[in-house]
Specification:
It is a single chain. By secondary structure, this protein is α+β, with helices and mostly antiparallel strands. Helices cover about 50% and strands about 15% of the residues. The protein is built from 10 helices and 12 strands. It has helices at about 5-70, 70-100, 105-120, 170-180, 225-240, 280-295, 345-390, 435-460, 465-485, 500-515, and strands spanning about 130-135, 140-145, 160-165, 170, 185-195, 200-210, 215-225, 255, 265, 300-310, 315-325, 330-340. Keywords: Cell membrane, Membrane, Transmembrane, Transmembrane helix.
Amino acid sequence: MNKTAFTLISSLIVAISLIVAFAIYSITAKGNEEIEKFRAEEIQRLKQYIKDSVDMAYATIENNYKNSMDKVYLEKYYGPRLKNIIDVAETILNSKVQAVKNGKMTLSEAQAEAAAEIKTIRYDNGDGYVWITDTALPYPKMIMHPTEPSLDGQVLDDAKYNCALGKDQNLFTAAVEICQAHGKGFVDYLWPKKTQEGVISDVPKLAYVRLFPEWDWLIGTANYVDDVIIEAIEKSQDDIRKMRYDNGIGSFWISTASKSELKMIVYPNLPSLEEQIIEGKLKKLFESFINVCEKQNGSGFLDYKWPKPTTGGMIEDAPKISYVRLYEPLGWIIGTDVSIDRIDKALAEKQERVEYEEIMIIIKLVSTSLLVIFIFGMLIYMRNRSSNVKEEPEPVEKETAPVEKPTSMDEPMRMTEEIPVLRASPEQGTLRTDECVKMVQEISKTLIAEHAKLLAMALQKAPGAVSNEVKKLANKSIEEVTNRIEGKQEGPIGEPSEETKFKVVTDLNKMVGTINLKE
């Protein structure tokens, strides 16, 4: 086997080593990228999950609040009571009409008595009353108002009455129009409310009015509906306290959205904090929530660390994600949080699967490269053997055979001289096959050693070190393989036994088998 052939083999070893090294580098880099991508996807999935949960809590609060402001809902909620009050007033009017018909009193006397009796009607701790107007348009006249007698006989055209139906319509005109169209109905409007703290302007109110056609009067009563708003707020707080997600683990909290008066409203995990001013480290956290809502159009995520008890009884800061959302009508911030360490288990399982796949690919790659080197070496060996046989003719030994002279003229002459005969020498015309196979064995050992080092570094996630080591191994392998080749060129030529050939192949199979892992 000539030097050129072995140079080709050594060059092939170096080339495949470089290819395998960079393949390992790419595989590990891709594996790391896949793990990071998986982690990012898990965090994004977690964020979307808590966002959807907070949106559900937000929708509950919004639904309760809108119901408290919805006219249809308010009519169902307050309507029966208001109608009952008007029924009482209408009963008084009907009795006076009957008295007039019976001749017991005049119309003016009956109307005066009816107005006086209706004036005394009170409900809702004295805040509820009944008023009477006529049906003149564009502005009716007040006939009787129990709490503001100065209005009696006045045309109700003051601009302060332009507060009805959400479109600044005169509330008394709106009442007349509804009664003329339907005989009765509801009017929603805004009106000042007196409290212990003073007068509150623009408090929502709902009126129920009914036409009394016999006298062309309109009787009405109204109730402040801020009570239902308060009830809606209380209902929302109770709903949020009870709401859970993530198999009962996740819960929600509500705080005020004012830094000047930062108060906890709902906190199921520690109810003692409710209605308390938030202070200390918790205050800084909730101020950060307010900042998120102010900067991100009313909602957003916040990444932070918060103390968490461990199984050993210690406290350590654990990464968390919160999603918060501002409910502007009530000045509330609704939020929830989740620990990121919950994805650690899924991440570890993913990393284990990726590393296993990497190892399997690397093992197949190394095994294939060894097989290619072995086959290439054997092909070189077979080609050189064939060429050596052709280039070195076998020596010729002359043997003489006797030639006899003919005994007669008719017999052909037999030569008694010796005729040269070619005879091959058993020790010539062949190569040292055992030496060539041993050479391939040494080359394979070198390749296995190099790939084992690269595989070890790949499993330790040191791609940079792999690249540097490749250069050292490549230079070293060229020198070692060349020395082995040149040292094996000389020596006696002989044919190895079948037992020797079988032993060499078995050894190669064992070497390749040492790097295969059982799945």
